[in-house]
């Protein structure tokens, strides 16, 4: 085989590997909202980190004190998210996530940093009475 054909073959192989790699990385993992809520509620002291997930079902953490870091990035909340009257005493990070259903942050208190960079709300969102006591990041 001449060197030109070998170079083309190598190029096509590399292109195929890169395409497959991007496809695998782009796939999000499905998880039920109640599983995340249970772990946040019952695993005291453990920080929770989720990335690249599709979160289905009602995400309900109302009227609680949360003392652990919560990181849910580049994920998609498909249904209602109710965080009414939550007191976050540790940082929270929703960077790059999308909230498709109605979302309530009504009366929430963020004592530490809250990251909302590149967050998209596709439905109604309520921040009435929310307090940001730490630094917060928004926008792009």
Mean pLDDT: 84
Distance between the termini: 50 Å
Structural class determined from secondary elements: alpha/beta
Q: In percent, how much strand structure appears in the residues?
A: 25-35%
Reported for the largest beta sheet, the result is: 5 strands, parallel
Can you count the helices? 2
**What Rg do the Cα atoms give?**
20 Å
Q: What coarse outline follows from CA principal-axis ratios?
A: elongated
User: What is the domain tally?
Assistant: 1
Helical coverage, percent range: 10-25%
Order of secondary-structure elements: HEHEEEEEEEEEEEEEEEEE
Low-confidence stretches: none
How would you characterize the overall build of this protein?
It is a single chain. The protein is 24% helix and 34% strand. It starts with a helix and ends with a strand. It is an alpha/beta fold. The protein has helices spanning 3-26, 33-42, and strands at residues 29-32, 48-51, 53-56, 59-60, 65-66, 70-73, 76-77, 81-82, 87-88, 92-93, 98-99, 103-104, 109-110, 114-117, 120-121, 125-126, 131-132, 136-139. It has one domain. It has a five-stranded parallel sheet with strand order 1-3-7-11-15. It has a five-stranded parallel sheet with strand order 2-6-10-14-18, covered by helices on one side. It has a four-stranded parallel sheet with strand order 4-8-12-16. The longest helix has 24 residues, at 3-26.
């Amino acid at each position: 085989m001449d060197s030109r054909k070998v170079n083309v073959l190598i190029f096509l192989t590399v292109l195929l590997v890169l395409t497959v790699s991007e496809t695998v990385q782009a796939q999000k993992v499905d998880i039920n909202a109640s599983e995340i809520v249970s772990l946040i509620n019952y695993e005291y002291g453990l920080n929770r980190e989720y990335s690249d997930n599709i979160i289905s079902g009602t995400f309900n953490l109302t009227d609680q004190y949360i003392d652990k870091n919560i990181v849910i990035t580049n994920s998609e909340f498909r249904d209602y998210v109710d965080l009414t009257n939550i007191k976050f005493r540790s940082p929270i990070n929703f960077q790059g996530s999308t909230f498709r259903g109605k979302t309530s942050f009504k009366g929430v208190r963020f004592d530490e940093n809250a990251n909302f960079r590149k967050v998209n709300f596709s439905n109604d969102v309520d921040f009435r009475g929310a307090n940001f006591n730490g630094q917060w990041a928004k926008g792009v």
